[in-house]
Every structure is written in C-alpha cells, then in structure tokens.
Amino acid sequence: MFKKILIANRGEIALRVIRAAEELSCATVAVYAEVDRDAIFVRRADEAYNLGGGPPADNYLNIEKIIAVAKRSGAEAIHPGYGFLAENAAFSAACEEAGIVFIGPPPAAIEAMGSKTRARELMKAAGVPIVPGTTEPVATPEEALAIASEQLGFPIAVKAAGGGGGKGFRVALSEQELPDAFAGASREGEKFFSDPTVYLERYLPDPRHVEIQVLADRHGNVIHLGERDCSIQRRHQKLIEESPAPEWIVTPQLRERIGAIGVEAARAVDYVGAGTVEGLLQGEEYFFLEMNTRVQVEHCVTEMTTGIDIVKEGIRAAAGEPLSYSQEDVVLRGHAIECRINAEDAAKGFTPAPGRISSYREPTGPGVRVDSGVGAGDEISPNYDPMVAKLIVWDADRAQATARMLRALREYEIGGLTTLVPFHRALLATEQWAKGETCRDLLEDRDWLRSTAPEQAPAAGAQSDPGRELIERSYTVEVSGRRYDVRVLGEASEQPLAAATGPALARTPRPRRAQRAQSNGGGAGGPDTITSPLQGNMWKVLVKQGDAVQEGQLLCIIEAMKMENEITAHKSGVIAQLPISEGAPIAAGDPIATITAAEGADGG
Q1: Is 83 helix (H, G, I), strand (E, B) or coil?
Q2: CA triple 327-115-339, angle to 5 deg
Q3: Could you give the CA distance from residue 184 to residue 117 in angstroms, rounded to a whole number?
Q4: Domain 4-103 belongs to what architecture?
C-alpha cells in the first residue's frame, strides 16, 4: 500500500478520497487554487500546496504543476477524483513517466473510452450492443443531415466525441434544428474537452439511464456491483440517482445480463480500478452509451447497497493488490437514493446560483450520509461545478428510502444560497417518482418547475420601488410552550426583531429573476431591456445592434458553473442597444439587450 497519496481535485471528492486514504493509513497531499485556500479539504490533508490563481487551466488542469508537487512532497500516487484530469490519458501517461502511480486505468484504456466514437467501435467489435449511430466522426452539418435523412431519421442526438457529463450533447428534432445542434455540440466539445469532433446517435426519446459499476485489478479480476438508475436528469446531467433500479424496471435476470455487459466492456480495454459503464434501457433492450474511466459522482449509492468502499478498492487496485471481493460476494441489500444539492434555481430553469453560504447544517440520523466539502462562510464559485453536496440515504426498500430522503431534505439548512433542496422535495413527493418514471415531463414543464420555488411573502410596493432591498428573515418563537417558525419580510436596513426568542434560522435571500426593465414609459410597444439572470461569462453573442429579431430567438449564451445558459428574445423587434461582448464577464442584473418595437424603428 502507498505511504502518501496526492489528490488532484477539490471539494467533496477531494475530502472523500482523503478519508479513504486515512483508513488505509496513507498520508495525504492536497493541491489547491487560490480561491480554495481556506477550503475544508485543504485543512484536512496532511500537506497542502498552492497551485496559484486564475482559471482551472492554471491550477487544477495544469499537469506540470501537479506532477511537480507530487515529486516535491514525495507522493507515490495521484488520485484524480472526477472531473478535471480524471479522464485525461496524457495525465495518466505523465504520471507513469514521472514514476508516480495514477490511481485509475492505464492511459490506453482512458484513451480508448475517452473518445466516444472509438469506444463505440470497440464495444461493437466486442459484441456489446450500442445505440444505432455512427462510429466515425461526422465532419460537417451537411454530412450529418445526409446520414440522419438516409440512415437514422429524426429525432437525432449530436454528441461530442470527447464529451461527458451532459456536455457536448444536443438533440435535433428536425432537419431545421440540425445545424444549430451540430454547432452547439461541437462548440462544447472544443471548450470542455479540447475536441470539436462530433458523431450521431439515434435519439431515444424517453429511455432509462442505467449504469453498471465495475471494479478491476491488475490480476485479471473484473466484477460488477449492480446497477444505478440515473434517469432523473436536466440538460442530460444527473440530479437524482438510486441503487438498485426500481425492481419492476430491472429484474434479477436483466441485472445479470447488463452486469455481464459491463464486465465485458471493462475487459475489452484491460481496465484497472473503479469505472462505470453507462447505458440506455428501453424496455428489455440495453444499449452501451459510454464508459466513465473514473469514480462516479454517484458511486455512494452503490456503496450503501453493497457495503463495498469503491474508493478504497480503486486505491488498492492501483497499488497492485487483488480485489477484496469476488462476484459471488456482491449482494445488494435495501435501497439507496442520492440527491445532488446544487447551487441552482430550478424555478428559473436550473440557472446557476453561485454565492456565499451564510449558515449551514447537514441532516443526520439513521441511514443518512452527506458527502460535502463546505461549511458556513464558504463560497460556491461560478468558476466550478455548482455542486454543494451530495445527500444520500439508505433504507430497506425504495418507498422507505424516499420517506427518509424527504425527512433529510427537510432537515437540510443552507443559508444564503438558492439550491435544489426545494426541487428535490417537490419531485420526490410526486406520483411519477413513486411509480419509478423518468419524470421527464416534469423537468420540461416550466410551470411545474416554477412551483418548486420556496414560498415568498408578498412585498407591498416592491414592484413600484425597485431600489428597496427586501429580505426575508426567519425566527423561532415560543408561545405557551409551543415553538413556531415565523418569517418576516422587511428592508435590509431594518434591525432584526429584538423580541424574537430562540436562534434565528437561515436567512432566505430574494431569488434572482431574469428581468425586463422597462424604460422611457415603454409598455408593450416601448423599449424593453433584458438583464442577465445570473453571473458568468459571455460565451457567445449571436446578434448585432440593429438586427431584427423574433420572439424566442437566441441572442447570446452565458457560461456559468460549467453550464451554457441560453438567453432568448422575449418579444419581436429591433436590437436598439447591445452592451455585451464575447468573452467579457457579466453579473446578475447587467443589461444584455434593449429591444424596441419593429414599427417605426430606425435600427438603432
């Protein structure tokens, strides 16, 4: 076993690996960007080294810096966690060249599975069923249109060859939508994975997303730990995961069959460590989707139902030890559910909501686990993924696990941030969830999403006086021996109620809204300014001042917290003002564009 491990990551996964290493009696080394100087994982590690400020490319993605720290600290191995360099074959190779063990698969396996087109070729050759589509990159929108029209039909998925985690995935429902889908998938592939190539798949409209957890060692042993159902997604990114899948969806016989597919996929690339084979399930048909050559965000639910520590098994495998378990040892007990607690506003279409945590209290009790790396006073930065924590529960069956999760969500207090806690509470209480449906209709229903917003007390005069800063304060008061939660809306300048007894609960901030600030007495035909609903960077501007636009037309794309957010015109007219430029930062509330009515407009 290693004596010292460097963790090339941040946040909750860095803390998760540190804990596993401690249980294996390994010393730990953290690396951190300047913004994470005071983070919990930095304080928890035995040693910590500053990689400097700037964007991730200058720190968490800087292979040369990380290798240098590993040598300086005497770390024998590097654990990449997930994201950043976790599926980077060049990083794995650089570790080998430096004489440092990469805790994960060999470079060849990462390279083979990192390219979705090559992975599809390998799986097809190995007899693993794949979603119908191309196994070669598609060069142009015109070529894509020909393939879609003649071979695959519509709807069709355009996917970045190096993509993952919902990035570089666009759907075209018709021929007219294909050029934009092609451009969007290619653009995200270039931005997030330095690879603009794309391929095509037949789009399955409402499949279940079912994945298989695999473990492999250097001695030829490969096992699977059953399946996870990750069908609750937005923008093709997971929100809720469970293990196992609902019993009426995946039978023991189907589990055995798709488990064998996962094992064969791992064997096909001589895999080592923890990995996940993702697939789409439509009825009894199971199609290989991709392999994630790393530990998954949602590995926790499998740990809860199998009792196997996936992170420690991955470390042991990298150290050359055989797996601690055979396939016969793997038994699934009970049911586990994970909710991703992201800093997002579901009521506004899951827009990122970065900010500082004012108060923080995690749920506890039987069968409750929280994987986090934050506390009161910490900032959820717009430069990184919006995840705050992962809330995981276990119970004897799915219904009881759901009840336990709802209880835990009610206990979770995160002040100062808008998070997905209210969304999770609303969705897990629906009949669709109880029936084990994908809930895709709810996730695409804007009215239903708006209904998941926390209730806000009405503010008299708030619309007529936009300069007032109104906040909602919460108190616990006691009347005749009984305690009550009381919410009071008032101006930020007002002093808190002195008479309230008991500690104040978390402050609930005013939610940010995408706004249209009317000016010059404008009404329906007057000028109308669209303001940014979030903080981020202006990734793409698709119109010019003076352009005529139609209602719903895409104006620009704001990138925030590793997500693209499309801003569209709320009405038809002419772009009279456009005070934005590509690459520039933008804050919530900043003006994006002023649209005037087309009649009588002079084009600005």
Answers
A1: coil
A2: 60
A3: 18
A4: 3-Layer(aba) Sandwich (3.40)
